[in-house]
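In this supplementary section we document a worked example of the pipeline. Step one takes a protein sequence of length 469 as its only input; no multiple sequence alignment statistics are reported here. Step two produces a three-dimensional model, which step three serialises into structure tokens for compact storage. The input and output of this example are shown verbatim.
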Amino acid sequence: MVNDQSTYRIERDSMGERQIPSTVYYGIQTLRAIENFPISGLRPLPLYVDAGILIKKATAIANGELGCIPQEISQAIVQAADEVLQGNLRDQFVVDVYQAGAGTSHHMNLNEVLANRALEILGDEKGNYQRVSPNDHVNYGQSTNDVIPTAIRIGGLLALEHHLYPALSEAIAALDTKAEEYQDVVRSGRTHLQDAVPVRMGETFRAWAQILSDHLTRIETAAQDLTVLGLGGSAAGTGLNTHPDYRYRVAELLADFIDQPIKPAPHLMAAMQSMAPFVNVSGAIRNLAQDLVKLSHDLRLMDSGPMTGFKEIQLPPVQPGSSIMPGKYNPVIAEMTSMVCFQVMGYDSAIALAAQAGQLELNVMMPLIAYNLIQSITILGNTIGTLAEKCLKGITVRRDRCLEYAEKSLSLVTALNTHIGYLNAAAVAKESLETGKSLRQIVLEKGLMTEAELAQVLDLETMSKMPEN
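The serialised model returned by step three reads:
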């Protein structure tokens, strides 16, 4: 750096002083973190930044109203926060995901950026922390130990509302539409990847829709834990250096900001120490991911071919499938879905390990939990949205192929069990497989049933009909 004071400012902390580029809004603690943690190149997720900034906005308003910081400074911090929420200064949040325990480095990055922008708003120079301090004003009554778990909660709720819930609803609606469109199509069921009794294609789609709908309910239930905040507990849950009304006012403001039923925890120390809400939500997300893998594999199997596979459905082609085989199209959206789901499962495992690693009044692994949870929700939501738009909505069903397989399935013999007995039915199936004769022909040859009886029992429409609720 050129030794010219026009290009840098001097900032001091308890460890000494450093030169800070004059153009940046972060300060000395952020600079130390940049130097200390050149680990992954991953910066904080946008929704995690939003969550932290919303907290700082709410705390500035509350502390200003309660007389804990001057109104002029409160208003400047709020204006700075609003500017960040509108998209400004986003490049100033620079601390690596893998950083100081509990998230102190990221937390101070937020405090410094808001303090320096507030100083500019007040007509002052960046770095004049005697007037607006990252610690004494932006962070008044707060600690990393209650801000970061709150930011994880707010970030998780934002990710669910912005990414996962809309995408899941879209996928469920797409599957319901396909269920209605293809309710009359009968296909061969398969268990153990072997022929099974016939089912309706419409019910196949409807089952997938129900599975996703059930997951949506589970996730919404788990997410209720995220609305209970330990903010106001300060360093260890005792509320040291906070106004008695502070935690209630901040919760009220955050509830208004994100339109969620935010409330203070009944025991702040418990809310700050336990990572159980994040494990609970992550587990629900993992559960969804596991069923999405199964769904994506089903789509790939049913689309396999076109000449040597099932090819009961056609997934919409979205790009050429091979660098060497002309005309080949692959189920790439379904393949991508499985890959993302595997990553989500990995994130969940890391969250579980991090959640158990707290000691006494603090869990220092919160930065890992924050990134993994919010990233899981975000990428899974984006994936489901893409799956719905580029795959599910464009599925077509090969009616002729489905009917052919259904009529050929040896498992149709199952319908004969109650008429000729299990052992006789097994013998008929074995002979059909060995001779190539149809089930109908063999039953008639053996005199086990009449033509009229067979016509009634082996009716595909009747066999594949779902029971009434």
